[in-house]
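step 4 of 6: structure.
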Amino acid sequence: MTTSTSLVYLIALPLFSAGLLLILGRIADKWGHIFATLVSASVFIIGALEFFAMQGREGEARAATQKLFEWISVGSFKVDAALLLDQLSICFVLLISGVGTLIHIYSIAYMSHDRDRRRFFAYLNLFIAAMLLLVLGDSYLNLYVGWEGVGLASYLLIGFWNQKPAYATAAKKAFVANRVGDVGLSLAIMIAFTQFGTVTFAGVKESASGASAGALTAIGAMLLLAAAGKSAQFPLQSWLGDAMAGPTPVSALIHAATMVTAGVYLITRSNFIFDASPTAQLMVVCVGATTLLFGALIGTAKDDIKKALAASTMSQIGYMILATGLGPVGYAFAIMHLLTHGFFKAGMFLGAGSVMHGMNDEVNMRRYGAIRKVMPITAATFGLGYLAILGVPPFAGFYSKDKIIETAFNAGGVQGILLGGATLFGAAVTAFYMTRVFVLTFTGTKRWDENAHPHEPSILMWLPMVILAIGSVTSGFLLSTGNALVNWLEPVVNESQEHHEHEFLPPIVVSSMALTFVAIGVGLAIFKYRTVPTQAPENVSIFTRAARKDLYQDSFNEAVFMRPGQRLTSALVTTDNKVVDGLVSLVGWLVQTIAGATRAIQNGYVRSYALIMVLGVIALLGAIWMVTL
Amino acid sequence: MSNLALGALEVGKTLTPEAVLFWILAPLAVVAALGMLFAKKAVHSALLLAWVMVTLAIFYIAQDALFLGIVQIVVYTGAVMMLFLFILMLVGVDSADSLVESIRGQRSAAIVAAIGLSGLILSLISRATIGVEAIGLKDANSGGNVQGLASELFTKYVFAFEVVSALLITAALGAMVLAQSTTTKSRTAQRDQSIARFRGASLATAAGLPGSGVYARHNAVDVPALLPDGTPAPLSVSATLEARGDMLSSKPFELEVKEEEED
Amino acid sequence: MDISNYIYLSAILFTIGAIGVVIRRNAIVVFMCIELMLNAANLAFVTFSRIHGNLAGQVASFFTMVVAACEVVVGLAIIVTIYRSRRSASVDDASLLKR
């Protein structure tokens, strides 16, 4: 472990920038966005320098730590505010700061007409700071601070245009769903502390082998709950579609590339817990498989381009979560898919934003069509991302997704076949709906509105898209040549222990099967959407209706959680008013009544007072009589 | 007389003569007290209280408190009760309480209080005095009761004695101050009184009431005078006498009305 | 005959006096009942003095009589003053402190 003194700048710079822009207010309107983008770029440069420095070091010295200050010291519970930059964290640092900077540049143009642009950039920087704290924290508690921070930034950014009540409600929904997951993380930290006496990653890693299976499963389940909340996995997935209410750069950065991948990071970081608890791993793969199918099915019926991409994100993260549940060999592939997904999904979101920008913020794909004729750069970059997500070689998704499918099959037995089959089917459906998106938007006949005149955006917008498209093309190849990423991450995820114990099918067979399924999906989509009605058809199958309604996720949540919760609250309020307040007013009423009754004694007549005195004397004598009894 | 005081110096029980005295006078005292309680006229209550006090004086003397017994009669019955009677006369001799009780529940509460109070005190006393034996005042009164009292009073209790004498002086002063009537308006002079009389409701009283004996056939204050037409004049006898029923009839003194007398 | 018979008598007279204070409405009669209570106490004192064989009880009784006399003087003066201003000797008429 090397000690470093520069890690803190990764977090301090964007945090300082966010604070400065918020405090200065309107004064900073003219230069706020430039300043924030420069800060983000400098974070990327520092990250890159750290990366090169790390490559220069060997073995144990690769990881760098920096202790900031002693945070909590209560009895036997000691937690330092410290940062840890190891092989896993640096991947995320580069992804966050790199993609983040590109999106900052994009936002300068995208938000140029918004009078609150400076505030937007402040929140973006705040997000960067929080996300970096999340991945750089050296203990679960430090991670939790970043975890909460990204939740806050997500809330602020989704509800950025909170003049519209629907957007503010969407922000609230995201925050509440996240909160349910946060409970899981808190419980995991608590259980870890009671079991191990420490919450640092190193400490828990050492003690994990000695803990009981029940404790490990519990911690694993709670961490999974937290990951499900943050990464929009089943059962906490309902907020991601609504989160598209935020500006498109937000969707690209937070809800495609970075925040929603925090769950994957958490599980990967806690690999020692999951590796020691097969039950928790089983839960992870179930959640991953369910979500990837769920997201894919929803995506087929969405006419809103952003919501379709959001469903796609949900599904792809399902792939990543599935991979993390497949044992030590799966972690590296999950991270690889995460990195490639960051490129192509962010690229596609920026492309969607560019299309929306040109079409007067219209999001309904049925009003698009043949955009590629007027926006060629957007179509090209979007198309490259589309090919990447399909898994077509040699684009990025091919390398990462196929590896996951392979590893799923290699899990062995019935579980392997089921998971592998699910991933293949998911790939087919992904191909279907992504082709649908592309065909509806960029090809076919013009279905535009009268006053829409789509045009290519400014260089500030298409340059980031091009860079991300280059990433979509090359990143997969670069990460998997010579098992680069796998070897790089090996010290963190202990992969060497179980290395290819069992190969179900040769990789080439798996890839061919995957490509076949993809081709089927693509073909179906092209065939179905030769002609596209401008209004969504009414008489559709029950599946389509269900998919349009997000597979009834909101209805379910409302019926099972919201309504009973509301009833409970109103019952409690009534109880509070009637019983608790009633008790208090009863006391008051009692005092008043007694006082009113005793007031009658004061009738002004001396004789009745004398009588009371005599009665008092009798009471006194009675007492003496009792005592001497 | 002291040593012959009915053999009250025997230790323990008292002798039969004292018992007879007690058992005759005590019920009478209780009856008198109850009568004082329930008498309608205030004067009757005062007189019954005087009776109780005299009985108590007799008891004091029977118990060898000779000085106290005499003081009880002289001071209490003689001075205090006379003071009560004087004030009664000032306030209204015929003042009588109505029997209707104005405060709700007072009567019943008073009955309960009576029973409770008496029951409790009596039972407590009986418990406290079980088997108590009287030492008697034979030794204490060896130099005579007055001498014994004096020696106690002026040695052990001299301070209290002085304080009580200051209290007496204060009480006398207080009574004097309270009895003064503050005159808020100046006394009317003779001329003003005369003017007021002649400006009154009718001239009938302008000259004031006649003195006793005027128009009289009988020279006393308790017989009404006769008006010119032979009827008794209502104003000529004091209202107090009339209320007390001491006014005599003027019939025996009326002249026979004859025709030739009216000129 | 028990010496405590005197004390019983004293107790009964005391009770009668106490009830009289409560029942009677004429201020002077109430005062007289108070006097009755004082006298009953005096009787008890004298009896106790006889029981214990010293004159302390009689001294106490003596002081009680003196103080009672003072009290009667001042009390009756007050009653007369009240009577002069209110023209009524009833205790019930002084009820200005009623609620």
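step 5 of 6: annotate
 - Chain C touches chain B through 70 residues (CB under 8 Å).
 - Helices of chain C lie at 4-23, 27-52, 56-86.
step 6 of 6: archive
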